[in-house]
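FORM 7B: Structural annotation worksheet

SECTION A. Query
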Amino acid sequence: MTERLYLEDSHLFNCKATVTACEQNADGTYAIELDKTVFFPNKGGQPCDTGSIGTVNITSCDEKGERLLHTAAAPLNIGAEYEVQIDKERRMDIMRQHTGEHILSWAAYMLFGAVNVGSTVRWTMQRWTRTYRWMMPRAKKWKFWLTK
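SECTION B. Predicted structure
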């Protein structure tokens, strides 16, 4: 099982890690498992970190049961140690938006009694789009979009 270093320090952007598994996916990419990682996975409406392991770019990070798999275009050697690096600017941007979502949710609740029932972040057309879903008193629903 991968040690998830981001749970202890969200401002940790790199580490050294050993490859414990490397399997080819049906689409030709590789699923790489490490003994530890700084990559936050796609989870809870939040997008994953991107970055690199050694010289290989990581385009996605996903949970598969207890496993945390990093998606890459090339394989890495099992048992080898690599420098793991996430895109710091992307991580900080996502963290700021996540904090803003909590502030906006609090304000909507205090002003209108609206309860946030979910939000999703997507990277589209070279910008982040965050969609909020609210439940209003008397079961009225409304939706709005904020873009950065």
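SECTION C. Observations
Residues 3-86 form a domain with the Elongation Factor Tu (Ef-tu); domain 3 fold (CATH 2.40.30.130). The two ends are 36 Å apart (CA to CA).

SECTION D. Sign-off
Analyst initials: ____
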